[in-house]
Amino acid sequence: MTRSHTAARSSAANWIDASARHQPLCERTVIELARRVQRWQQYPDGPELAPKAIKRSALRARDQLVNHNLRLVAHIWQRRSISSSLPAQDEGTADALQEAALNLVRAAEKFDPTKGYRFSTYATFWVQRGIHDYQQRYVRAIRFPAEKASLMLKAQRLIESEQARSGQWPDITWLASQLRFEGQPLSAQAFTTMFEQWQQSQIESLDHAPGVEEEAGALSRMDQASLALVAKQEQDEQDQADVLLLAELRQCLDGLEQRLIRNRYLRRPALSPCQLRRSMGGLKQAQLQQLEGQALAKLRQAAAERQALAGTTPTFHPTALEQGPKPEQPLQPVGAIGGRHRSRPSHRPGAI
């Protein structure tokens, strides 16, 4: 037993020592490395079809970004008192740190430097998830049935996501409706009972460890911020996909219809009804409405044909038009627009 603990202690200690060999990078270097990774990840035909030179450069940049941020894994493990439930002498601690490092690789591949936040903030969520997932599989499952534990971990993520989005605890009925146990919907009462049992079975609450309340609270806020950033990036990726879809669909419109769509939906700031009529050569309101309906019908038809041809399910909605470029600019490739949300024009489009 002593030999096993000594080996485990050496393994975890060696991992932490290895992570400390690389010094943190300056922000400019982080941004440049992340850009190289994104040139690979956002390649128009997909990262698997990217030229070998781009992929090799991106992989080197990704590995450098990960190696120089391995300190973050050890920092989170130590500062958040995870070490109390995963002590250095535990034979699974090195595995937990390694799993968190694998999540750091995922963070390096998804991090977009154009969004304006730091890589360490974004990566905190992924590192924390890796450690928690390991604890769920190899520690908590010993005291709590594995299937229920997996369900409660999903519930915890839903709670964290909702709190990061709205700042409020989600409704229990809604939370229970998102979960299924043994193939059956979970009632609010059953969820409450199961969640309380799961909380009691946890190994020493992370945010209530003695002497670290203030620190844990601050890092909990960081986790919430990184959760929000991850959710925002996923939405941005969907918005960028809508932009590319719109660029393809607009090819089915004639010149006048494209002009109306651009002036009606894509101009920023939005045109007033009077300005819109002038921009369209003095067409009357009824003519504009007819032309708009005709253009939107063509876009819907093109989307349906694209779906039938590709065997996918692209969705076209007027809100996709609002993700277009600024006035008098051509549509830009993925990553150049950033998927920013823009307010609706004062004149709402007709229903589709």
Explain how this protein is built.
With 352 residues, this protein is mainly α. It is extended, with a radius of gyration of 25 Å. It folds into 2 domains: 2-234, no CATH class; 237-321. A hairpin with a 2-residue loop joins strand 1 and strand 2 (184-185). Helix 6 (119-143) runs antiparallel to helix 7 (146-166) and helix 11 (255-266) crosses helix 13 (285-310). Helix content is 65%, strand content 1%.
Task: List the SSEs and their pairings.
Blueprint: H1 2-19, H2 27-41, H3 52-67, H4 70-79, H5 93-110, H6 119-143, H7 146-166, H8 172-177, E1 180-181, E2 184-185, H9 188-201, H10 213-249, H11 255-266, H12 273-279, H13 285-310, H14 318-321
Antiparallel strand pairs: 1-2
**What share of residues is helical?**
55-70%
Strand content: under 5%
Radius of gyration over C-alpha positions, nearest whole angstrom: 25 Å
Give the tally of β-strands. 2
Mean of the pLDDT scores? 72
Strand order of the largest sheet: 1-2
Kindly report the oligomeric state of this protein. single chain
The helix/strand series, from N terminus to C terminus, equals: HHHHHHHHEEHHHHHH
Straight-line N-to-C gap? 70 Å
- Approximate shape: extended
Key structural traits:
disordered C terminus; disordered N terminus; mainly alpha; 352 residues; 2 strands; 1% strand
Summarize this, please?
The protein has 352 residues and is an all-alpha fold.
